[in-house]
Design a protein that fits this description.
- It is a single chain.
- The longest helix has 14 residues, at 49-62.
- 38% of the residues lie in helices and 19% in strands.
- Strands 1-2-3-4-5-6-7-8 form an 8-stranded parallel β-barrel, surrounded by 5 helices.
- By secondary structure, it is an alpha/beta fold.
- It has a single domain, classed as Aldolase class I (TIM Barrel, Alpha-Beta Barrel).
- It starts with 6 loop residues before the first strand and ends with a helix.
- It is globular.
Length: 209
């Protein structure tokens, strides 16, 4: 299985504020068309394993099965619940060796060219490279790399690279022009008044380029 879409939508439990809003956002975004143009990353942080599994179950049940859906965090839970893949943080190299055909899509975070080069030795479907621009929500992953940094990252990676961090609609084409497969977005979609319309705007910019 592979994902060839250009948009990864990260729907973070903490960012949404409440379970109700989080689940509603997941459900609404999973009804977007065309469904092969984007995927949804279900992101749950700071929960104990039981609560994490319970929330991951609810998310899997509510998201349209026609949409590629990746669970951030636990490969085994992702596999058990029928997610299409798993997303792992940078430096979780050991966990990459544990993955098998039950985790068909493997997404990994990278924040440096060194990390990108290390990932070339592993089976990885996509790399979320960040921060490209100044993030509007999360920080702590170094200075923004800019478009030239993204270009170099793409050149250093054997995998599909998605630009993450402060990417607004008008910058998506610039990311594609320097070699990125697409972009990954959290606050630019989930943090807006109409998440679905914001996602459509990103898709228009990505596919009408």
């Amino acid at each position: 299985m592979s994902f060839q879409g250009r948009l990864i939508i990260i729907v973070d439990f903490d960012y949404c504020g409440t379970e109700k809003r989080w689940l509603e956002t997941l459900k609404q975004l999973s009804e977007l068309e065309p469904r092969n143009s984007f995927c949804i990353q279900v992101r749950i942080k700071g929960q104990n394993k039981s609560d994490y599994a319970a929330l991951a179950t609810k998310a899997r049940e509510i998201v349209n099965r026609e949409v590629t859906t990746i669970l951030n965090g636990d490969p085994q839970i992702a596999s058990d619940l029928g997610y299409d893949g798993v997303h792992l943080p940078e430096n979780h190299w050991r966990r990459l060796t544990e993955l098998n055909e039950n985790n068909p899509l493997v997404s990994v975070a990278a924040h440096s060219t060194d990390a990108l080069r290390i990932l070339n030795d592993f089976r990885v479907s996509m790399v979320l490279y960040s921060p490209i621009f100044a993030p509007t929500w999360k920080s702590g992953f170094g200075e923004p790399k800019g478009l030239e940094g993204l270009r170099k990252g793409v050149q250093d990676s054997d995998h599909q690279v998605y630009a993450l961090g402060g990417v607004v609609e008008k910058e998506t084409c610039m990311c594609i022009d320097v070699g990125a497969k697409g972009v990954a977005v959290l606050s630019g979609i989930v943090g807006t008044e109409d998440a679905c319309e914001s996602a459509r705007s990103y898709l228009r910019h990505l596919y009408e380029h």
